[in-house]
Task: structure prediction
Amino acid sequence: MQEWLGKSAADMGRAIGAGHVDPVSLAEAFFDRIEGHALRDKVYARLTKDRAMSEAYAASQRARAGQRLSILDGVPISWKDLFDTAGDRTEAGSKLLFGRVSDRDAVVVQNATAAGLVCLGKTHMSELAFSGLGHNPSTATPPCVNDADAVPGGSSSGAATSVAFGLAPAAIGSDTGGSVRIPSAWNDLVGLKTTHGRLSLEGCVPLSLKFDTVGPLTKTVEDAALLMAALAGQPPGDLRGARLKGRRFAALKTVVLDDIRDAPRAAYESAIERLCAAGAVVQPLDVPELEEAMAQAGPLMPGEVYGLWRDVIEAQPDAMYSEILQRFRLGKDFSAPDYNAAWAKLDMARRAWDTAVAPFDAVLAPTAPILPPNLARLNSDTDYYKTENLLALRNTRIGNLMGICALTLPTGVPSCGIMLMGAENGEEALLRLGVAAEAALS
Result:
């Protein structure tokens, strides 16, 4: 069974369908690996073994009867600790929510269960999902798979590392400003940010009701496509026959290359060369209105999230990690008129973006302009923490502000991803481009 633990979720699903792998044995093998792994308690907040084994047994029975629910029926996955699972604690990486238990599954968990997926457990995350670094001294901080002294990216830190360290075939996270894509890029995974509203947020601990999204962190684009479909309760799109020849990509210049470090820049340029070699047409693109949109992130995100969490936070401020507390409290500086004016400016920038990118199949950018920061320095240098956190989130935040879907792919350079940005609700088209780009970059 050990040879199957490193396979993609889709390959595991096909093996179950062919009778080569039993879901019960597969789940047992993952729990054996998790429970014997040195990083178990840094990756998983809690395991849901009883639930998982019950689900695996049901999947095994369906496989024997030829009644599988989907290609992923019987495949185990991990869930970020902000998705409710009935009867289990869901604490969103915060002592503020210690002991919080829901009596029902989140809608996306319900949909995944209906597709036969097996719930391994809940993974650690940045506190209340409000950091792109993945550092959480209140609970646990897993290491980056490429640098044991560095943070893994966040806020879906445990989600990414559960896959990168072989403790789950795939994971489900959330993305409000980059929280699926940053840890995916820094741990050499595929990460899909879905369009806001494409997947249900019911039963998810919120950060921002206007910007939160749900998305998978996976080993392959195929896995991302299959999991998105499962989370939506819909059939997966067809990825067959996807090609790059003649596809037009815009290489974004505005904002995304500012202060970029050498390794991410070199990886990005090399990735573009390989896409062009596979037949893609890549042209540079400036969208000046993007600068104005980025300036609205302050009143829009901290303004909303502090309004949403103020009463809970101010009742127990000492229970929070100080850097996250300070970031929430930035929302105090913005009034309702500031918030509404920012939305008006963002709507104008979105229209300009849509016009500028309309001739292209997707827009390219480095997923993150920096490499994973050093954990010890983050703990000792407040200015470094703030600078690196803002830089980590800068490029990915574009997708959230523009209200679009986005996909990060590994470039082959450790902890360096390339991001493809698609259209609003254009996930199926983006995933087809992604599977072709994945082949060109491999």
